[in-house]
Design brief:
By secondary structure, the protein is an alpha/beta fold. The protein has one domain: 3-Layer(aba) Sandwich (Undecaprenyl pyrophosphate synthetase). 42% of the residues lie in helices and 14% in strands. It has eight helices and six strands; from the N terminus they run βααβααβαβααββα. The protein has helices at residues 16-22, 27-47, 67-73, 76-90, 106-118, 135-151, 162-167, 212-224; strands at residues 8-12, 52-59, 94-98, 126-133, 177-180, 199-202. The chain has a six-stranded parallel beta sheet, with helices on both faces. Strand 3 (94-98), helix 5 (106-118) and strand 4 form a beta-alpha-beta unit. The longest helix has 21 residues, at 27-47. The protein starts with 7 loop residues before the first strand and ends in a 12-residue tail after the last helix. The structure holds ligand V0D. Ligand V0D is lined by residues 13, 16, 31, 34-35, 38, 57-58, 73-74, 76-77, 80, 95, 97, 112, 115, 129, 131.
Length: 236
Amino acid sequence: MEKKKLNHLAIILDGNGRWAQARNLPRFKGHYEGGKRVKEIAIAASLKGIKRMSVYAFSTENWKRPTSEIDYIFKLPRLFLDMYLSDLMKYQIKIECIGDISQVSSNAKKAINDCIEKTKNNTGMVLCFALNYGSYQEIINATRNIASLVKEDKLNIEDITKETFEEYLMDSTPVDLLIRTSGEQRISNFLLWQIAYSEIYFTNVMWPDFNEEELDKAIANYYQRDRRFGGIKNEK
Ligand code: V0D
């Protein structure tokens, strides 16, 4: 049976701190290595024809971590830009962000906006960082915006469809394959709407150990599975 093309890959980048601790390294080393893997896997994914790769870099729950760790994590966007901009341009990777960056430090915000601005004309794969992102919040915001249109008589209740709703999400591209590294088998509030029909691949490999071979395994697994969207097997 024909399998649906892998257009949108999403990854929950788990296990960076644990990877470092297991090697008696400070946790920030794991985040640094994790950032390097994001760059490498983005290049590999773009060369495989994937059009969009969304990575869960910082969740709304991650604020519970020690301040020293958070301070380091928010230096990563600048580091990423300085170290990898030439690669992003070479491979024509375009950076986007979803999540609420209004409450992050102005230095981090500047770096993020520089990344977006400098790569905005790139024509290849989009690498979308989910940063201070949470899916409940995304869906609540969409609902609030739609509700105010209804209240102002600019939208009829009957016209709230899947398509209208998706216009108010930060990104409405359906996820084809979701990968979560490091052994946890949960979604953790990542792209809840967008994963409605996605295949989900869990691996025990920690994110800093993830490589192109692991990506190939996940992709091979994706193409092996039947994707029927609830239809009848072999109907297509
Ligand atoms: C830490 C592993 C790149 C997960 C990846 C602030 C946790 C490395 C960025 C980045 C993070 C974000 C926006 C941008 C350019 C780069 C990043 C965070 C965490 C959260 F425009 N890596 N990275 N952002 N980590």
